[in-house]
Here is the input.
Amino acid sequence: MLVEKYQKHVKTTFLLAYPVMLSQLGQVLVGVADSMMVGQLGAQPLGAASLANSIFMVVLMFGIGISYAVTPLVAAADGQNNRKQIREIIKNSLLINTVSGFLLFGVVLAASNLLYHMEQPVEVVRDAIPYLGVITFSIVPLMIFQSFKQFAEGLSQTKQAMYITIFGNGLNVLFNYILIFGKFGFEPMGLMGAGWATLISRILMAIMMIVYVLWSKRYKKYFKGFKFKKFSRPLITRMVKIGVPTGLQFIFEVGAFSAAAIMMGWLGVNQLASHQIAINLASVSYMMASGLSAAATVRVGNQLGKGDIQTLREAGFTIFGMVAVFMLVTALIFVSFRFFLPSLYIDDVEVIQMSAGLLIIAAFFQLSDGIQVVGLGAMRGMSDVKVPTIITLVAYWVLGLPIGYLLGFKLDLGAQGIWIGLLIGLTVAAVLLFYRFDTLSKRLLHKA
Here is the structure.
């Protein structure tokens, strides 16, 4: 009976999660496609892409974190069958996310010249700044896309965003081919071609998601009487209180990897390029695991709205088990194909050797990475974001990065020492977040 119960949880979660996993994979494959094609131009353009993306990913993940406030609130309102509340959530989220997109673009634009003061190779910074400006503007249409995507996912409708993301990623690859290498009459644009391809594909994705949601009969009942005015200050405050800490969680984690990229730049261009390849591959498994994290947010938030804490715990622990199995498989892939996978990016033997060494460490932190991202999703479903934010800050910035610096530069372990520090940070975060979910859900069960 117990086995059947958990099998049902696995099936429900998988049907909810796999479209999100493919959708998240589509988002990160934009960067993978850029890196693979830019890598054909040489180590310097790939290093510039690495430096720019290390900054952009921090901003992007903060923006996505802000948009994640929509999902648990919609899931809880859906559990209470409160359509009016759902309509108010989508209206106010559009305002928050659009304004956030423009603000984040402005911050990056104003601060981009600081890259010259980070002791990076000058030629790499010179190529990175204009590319960074173009890809950062793509966050504006992406935030609008996220508003409608998170709304649909909060209602357990996950396939449509998946289809649009996969199609958008296909367009990005096509535009990369045309603009980077100069096909069909276009002038070769090199690295900048990858930036413009990303921007164009994300604008088209936002348009497609808006058209689908507003024209679909499935969602008409939620937009009945919808007017883009009379915003709710209390609801905006509530969403910001969930979204900003969630964004900070992403900043503390992704920012740690971005800081690691800057430290790699201190070691040299080849080390920076190898970091870009390894982190690019690790980000594929991470974003797929974040699909299970999104499923955890929906399932936990929905059961919280219904007041069924026992099922909430069962669903949460089932997803922890699922992500553990998935990440162990990706670890085996990284170890088995550690030389082949980097060769898809570049033909430089030294960079491939360095990347292979980093993929061994990436294999070790796969389990921790999966557990911690699902833990963050489950806690978000319970609207518990402050303590998880502190956990991520301590794990990555108090422990992970300082240990990585010590191992990499003081003990002369180089690139591998920096990544061992990241492994330690991820492991600490995973243990603490799993404990937090167990403790808090037990407390709720006791009250119920």
About this structure: The radius of gyration is 21 Å. The mean pLDDT is 87. DSSP finds 15 helices and no strands in the chain.
